[in-house]
Queue: 2 jobs
Job 1
Amino acid sequence: MYWINTIIQGALVGGLYALFATGLSLMFGVMRIINIAHGDFIVMSAYLAVVVVGLLGVDPLVSLAVVVPVMFGIGYALQRGLLNFTLGDDILRPLLVTFGLSVVIQNGLLELFSADSRRLQLPWLETASVRIGDQLAIGLMPATVFVVAVVVIAALELLLYWTDLGRAFRATADDSDTARLYGVNNRYIYAMATAIALSVMSIAGVLFGIRTIFDPTIGPARLLYAFEVVIIGGLGSLWGTLVGGVILGVAQALGAAFDPSWDTLAGHLVFLFVLLVRPHGLIPKTVGL
Amino acid sequence: MSLLRTNDLIAGYGDFQALFGISLSIDEGEAVAIIGSNGAGKTTLLRTVSGLLRPRNPTDIEFDGSAIGSLEPEQIVARGIAMVPEGRRPFPSLNVEDNLRMGGYCRRTGPWTLQRVYRLFPMLAERRFAQSQTLSGGQQQMLAIGRALMTNPRLLLCDELSLGLAPIVIRDIYAAMPDIRAEGTTVLIVEQDINRALETSNRVYCVQKGKITLEGRPGDLTREQIKLAYFGI
């Protein structure tokens, strides 16, 4: 029963990891940008929620109503005003620029909020759980995170496959010059992709901030998890990121069950194992999204 | 007044100049062919008209009386110029119907709808949910034409429709031209297949090394004239 419990907890954390990864996957899928500042935007969203909670005195979940639109706007402006100029044949340019952004965001957060650890408080949800039988209990918070991840991924799938915007995303990812011939303004499409990616990341950031403590320097580790999830699941596949997230979460939970210091290590080992046996991931999609 | 006009059009790729002063004009309702050998500048000309390449002067290209040389491709298609690109270029991760819907992205209205395109190319209707890569070359060409028609263009630019296709397939594709023109669409085709070009068009321009070397109605041109203009020998 102990092991079943461990696996369930790990799988639920996987939902959060999947949310970390979707933004990364979307930006890479549409623009071939690897956003090195990805993890820092996640942390930035959590701090934004701290500010909103502090100012308005609302529940952290309610703060999403402000945090998500703000991050959407930041994403749009960031892509239109900066990242669009780095696109081209040289994939190194967006890499360097987002690396710079990562440094700027970390230090900006450090300046504004100090190096102290913060946490978003949500007592009514954090401690609540549902008992299944007499030995299993599922926390409402991890379950909520997982459900949110599934809903967000399903919504993104709907967007990509059933709307004009999604079709334009896929067409631009395939061949941006040809897409322009049919009326697609790729500067706008790229801006929308980054805006949506940052919105999803902001949801992940706030949920992450409720789950655990954070400080300005932990962004890069979230980026690493996001990378691992994307690689395990298969690049460009959204449901693949959910699978990847669950696998990483379970691996970390099982590792920690053997020895508390093994959690991250176990995740990395599974990642390396998948990279060895299935280098294109478990649910690969090579073309477009 | 002509629908499309180029005035001493000069364009190229970086330092490499490909077009050396092309002046042509196309009236509404015409079908005009541009012939010329490999590297003569035909594709460059179409890419410049569609906005993928910038001409030296914005006024080098006029469409319906206004200069379009400084517009982006997405603005040009919105004004009514659609291109069937060389090599067909279907979107590989979209199925046939989604490829066609991409043509409708710019939301110009007119006679061309999904149903109308499917009536023109019934094969596309049969394979509407197939991935575009699984189509044969000829089917991909039909898809590319259908996708361009979905923008409801006033001027349709066709780049090398016959490229890499079997003669019988080429015939099927050109069989759609009368239907397309019957909807009032003006057509500009670029073609290496001279006979096909002469058959399909009201007027022909021959391009060689980035310049126009011959212009006329197919019936008025002799084989000798065309040979001279085409090969320069």
Job 2
Amino acid sequence: MKTISCMNIDGSLLRAFGAEDKSYKKGELVYREDDHALYYFQIEEGKVKLNNYDENGKEFIHNILTKNQSFGDSLLFLDKTYPMNAVCLQPSEIIRMPKDSFLELLKQHPHLSVSMNACLSHRLYFKAIMIQSMASQSPVSRLKGLMDYLKSYHDDECGQAFNVELTRQQIASLTGLRVETVIRALKKMEKENILSLDSRKIMY
Amino acid sequence: MVINENILYSAGAHVIHYRPGEYIFREGDTTSYYYQIISGEVKLNNYSEDGKEFIQNILSAGQSCGEAILFIGKPYPMNAEVITECSVIRLSKLQFLDLLNQTPELLLEISTFLSQGLYYKFIMMQNISSQNPATRIRGLMDYLKSFHGRSDAPYSFLIPFTRKQVASLTGLCVETAIRTIKGMERDKIVKIKDRKILY
């Protein structure tokens, strides 16, 4: 079984279980931090970032998701509010399905429930590795932990390099490093052929 | 409890006893079992090259241990080291997957448990990226209280960890953790009673 860290359920099956298509404008919030998780979301077109801000207004981007990727789904299994916002980076078409219908869908289609568990497990595995590398003093292992986690959401069948769509500043915030340290570590990783830097773009 | 113990027994599970310091599994092992703790405490940890321990989580009765690995075919990324005398239900991977096939409603219970793990990891990741030790420790305490506390009242929750464990869970040195907890006492964020931390 091939697993990645997010779900991609057939759109017509979702609609048959009561999902609707919704259009969002650039900059529009799909949900806000502290909202209750009421829907399953899957992107048809567009791009969504998951973020939050600390007391000083510093932004933390936790992930950027795109076509055929689900987001916020793990909260549907908990009685907790979202710990972050979901904001559209582009005009986006998103399939939205009420929580109860989603759980019913999983009940009636156990193979989807199995893939859901595989997805959550995959995510958990890479998160564990990421956190472990965050506790390390080495900037390179911190960056590697973060990038492996982000990459785990993407299908890399064709061996394509994954474009890390975060700025150096955002990477610094997520890894608790200073921007200068991130820049230096990225250069070092390029020399060691761990990633390639194409002008400002990071390909991992 | 993730899965009812009787269901696990009828699927062919056995109880295994472990002594403190024993390993249920080690980093790099491939898995052949599902584990669920009946009693005792287990820590999921790694050691860095310089021997510093990092604890991912401390698990106790009713929680399963390393279950995510059963679904993705990768080796364990951490050890499961026994802290206090433990009884653990162990079911072979084949029997476990068979059980899920026959009882699909268990799949949702596993989703919930995995999602809890993810939520915890999200919080811990945010804590660890902070340079401020008090933020890291408070983040851990908030999380523990929100999942295990019975009330929101101040000082109503007893932090079930030693200072050394708090340090290893937040990636801090023990000395820093001790100093920070003292500072939190002065700032009336925690109360200390017989060495125990009340939050």
